Amino acid sequence: MGHKTRAREIAAQYGMPMTQGSGVLPAEPAAILAAARALGYPLLVKPAGGGGGIGMLPVHDESELLAVVERSRSMASRRFGNADVYLERLLERPRHVEFQILGDQHGNAVHLFERDCSAQRRNQKVIEEAPGPALDRSKVDALADRIAGIVRQMGYDNIGTVEMLMSADGDFSFLEMNTRLQVEHGVTEEVTGVDLVKSQIRCAAGEKLTDILPQTIVVKGHAIEARVYAEDPKSFYPSPGRLTVFRPPLDQTVRIETGYAEGREVTPHYDPMIAKVIVHAASRDAAIERLAHALETFDIRGVKTNIPAVLAVLRSDPFRCGQVHTGIIADVLTQKKTA
Fold first, then answer.
1. Is 145 part of any domain?
2. Predicted confidence (pLDDT) per residue in 256-312, tens digit
3. Shared domain check, 227 and 206
4. Are residues 204 and 231 in the same domain?
5. Annotation says 78 is catalytic
């Protein structure tokens, strides 16, 4: 399931709703062009063995296809050691909704509800929350149960996340599966009370889910996470340098996860994320306010950060109303420039 095109084939076999896509692209230019014509434009070229948005490149017409495929292959080879890429139909302004899964070695698998990860830049997540706002609850719960059933049939015995795209008309389609613990697992922990790291380890040790998890898992309140990146908040280019000041908020209700400290160097050689700020509150509105205040009081100097951009999104009317989609950050910052 960790290989994107193989995962698509397996998911389709089990009846998962799918976006249109190709298999791994061959080397021959004529075959690549034919695969694209069969799907229709716009398209997204994606590494089959990658993640984190790296190497995912849009293509809007045939004249740019071959050059973009070669560029994606080069990026995939450098970053993942696997140059396989494939094509997927590019949905305009979808929502990115993912479902947390946990399986054991005894044929059991459950879901721990969903997260909305739509607020992205360059196909990389920036703001994640649970539960997803402004969703048809009965539809999402039914999909979560269906996904858990499919994962159970597969015999999947690890932690994982099934990522789905939701179109403007509310239809869901399979995107990929991340066969690991994800950056945003903390928001699920905050609303369910389940320690996913501990649960993953206990499953790997051979314990049963019935001994690991509560008998009934319920969502309590709302949690939101912001990824703090060392990058220019306008261009989103990395901003390496020394953290001359790095002082997280002192509020004990705010969860900070970081591997950095004051005086450390943010190098250009790795992902520029330097911290995760996670909050939980009784309501989504309260969680948004708590997160905004935490980011305002996070004193970071020596590098630029994306905090101003995140605050602009959190305070925007579309975000507060739950009208999120993968282009919301670009929309909000564009409106801010023209205001």
1. yes
2. 999 999 999 999 998 899 999 999 999 999 999 999 999 999 999 999 999 999 999
3. no
4. no
5. no
**Strand residue runs (E) in the chain:** 43-47, 57-59, 85-89, 95-103, 109-121, 124-130, 159-166, 172-178, 222-229, 241-242, 245-247, 255-257, 265-266, 273-281, 299-301
The Cα 233–Cα 268 span in angstroms is 16
Q: How far apart are CA 314 and CA 295, in angstroms?
A: 11
Tokens of 123: 């196909």
pTM of the model: 0.89
Residues 74 and 157 placed together within one structural domain of the fold: no
* From 37, 93, 122, 180, active-site residue: 180
Least reliable range by pLDDT among 3-12, 108-117, 191-200, 258-267: 3-12
Domain of residue 241, residue span: 222-338
Whether residue 249 lies inside any domain: the answer is yes
CATH number at residue 328: 3.30.470.20
CATH code of the domain covering residue 71: 3.30.1490.20
Average pLDDT (112-122) is: 96
Q: Is the per-residue pLDDT at 337 higher than 80?
A: no
pLDDT tens for 161-177 read 999 999 988 999 998 99
Give the bridge partners for 291, in sequence order.
none
Same domain for 69 and 147, yes or no, is no
pLDDT digits (tens, 9 = 90+) for 317-334: 999 999 999 999 999 999
Average pLDDT of the residues of the chain: 95
**Could you give the CA distance from residue 284 to residue 221 in angstroms, rounded to a whole number?**
7
List, in sequence order, every residue forming a beta bridge with 30; answer none if it has no partner.
none
> In the block, which residue shows the tokens 């791994």?
24
For residues 203 and 302, membership in a common domain is answered with no
Rounded Cα gap, residues 56 and 70, in angstroms: 12
Mean local confidence (pLDDT), 148-158 = 95
Q: Domain check: are 309 and 228 in the same one?
A: yes
β-sheet bridge partners, residue 225:
128, 278
Q: Indicate whether 141 and 193 sit together in one domain.
A: yes
- Decide if 95 is inside a domain: no
Q: Which tokens in the block code for residue 144?
A: 């979560």
Do 139 and 99 meet the contact criterion of CB atoms below 8 Å apart?
no
Asked, for residue 45, whether it belongs to a domain, the answer is yes
